[in-house]
């Protein structure tokens, strides 16, 4: 998969959402430079507290940027329609993926509450500005994501593994990458792990569980950040009756500024 | 009210909780130096999502440090009994205070979920270390707290005003107070207002809504921080069937370290 538009980084969130609403289905890495992207997870009202508590107990992978009340389809940071304005969605029944579609208008229910969860794309501009390469943006592909062997702290009926995203970083820039991303604690913050993928239970770094593989060059280390796909992995493991998520890498482009999540 | 024990600052959380469990009813400012204190709000399961969403939408006054599942009476950061180990409690029915007691064992219900919300006492040691006086600790009284005219962002059935705590700060130390407290974003962080109380809708600074008044000396400005009593003010305004809170100023002394909420 590649992004369809060379100028996508200069679009406003409003413009990007219109393209996705019209059916464009692409990963959003690099889109709408400076605007915050978010993971989506929507569950029935009955599960809302468990899911919000799961997020609260696992703030590194699940930083909640905003949440809706039952029936709402927009949010204070998303002036669009959560059912149509993301490039892609995953629909789950009892933890099974039953549809991957570019609109969930036909699946949405009035009792759903939606969570917008911070995304590491938020700090990628800052990495690039600091001279740290971001391989999947260079390649125009989706960021590689992996289920780990680390369990999240459960909450009620929700449990699941930590999911991580990976970026290969030259050894002499690892410290810079840590320093830059530490300043964005609300969008996953500093890496959770540097180096050996096996320590996270990742057997084959060349075969991500979500997204696309990227090349790790000589002199580079794989660096892992907590990932907002974690709530979807929890849905797969916990098997609630119904849930909707974004398609991994195809995020909600919000009206919040990346800079608003930067700590001084 | 004055603290009963000159050595209270050197106690462990375990020791302090034992005294409160035995019936000691005092404000906890200055107790258990270095250990984090927290506000308590407990509501029925049915209201849990609304309350957690209210907190999520109003992170300055309502930073959730931990939350329980229905029926739990301890938490990952509170290795005691939430029903007995605080010095004082307020019990509300339909928003009315119906009891102020030193144990809620007779009031607790199995469907309650409890939220531990960050408290500005957490950064008071850091203020003192930076040479900023903390008047209510000097005086051995409870911190003054005020309802403001600023509404919080509502969530479901929960709405209410921002509540603030106030500390008088010498004009030349206001910047230091801002800088020091900014480093504790998870426990209210930087002040929400410096100076004129009327801008917050506070009519008489000498008559706080909760806690005790303190002297503001010549050359000092009143400085206001978001306060974790805000969820209780929301309970009073929103009138849910039942709720339990801590008595203002009489906090849950947790097993978390103040330093764990310090950002680098």
From TrEMBL, chains A, B:
What's the protein here called? Putative hydro-lyase FGL98_23320
Provenance organism: Leekyejoonella antrihumi
Give an example GO molecular function. Answer: lyase activity
Entry keyword Lyase = yes
UniProt family annotation: Belongs to the D-glutamate cyclase family.
Q: What class of enzyme is it?
A: lyase
**UniProt keyword terms in alphabetical order:** Lyase
The UniProt record lists the EC number as: 4.2.1.-
Superkingdom as given in the UniProt entry? Bacteria
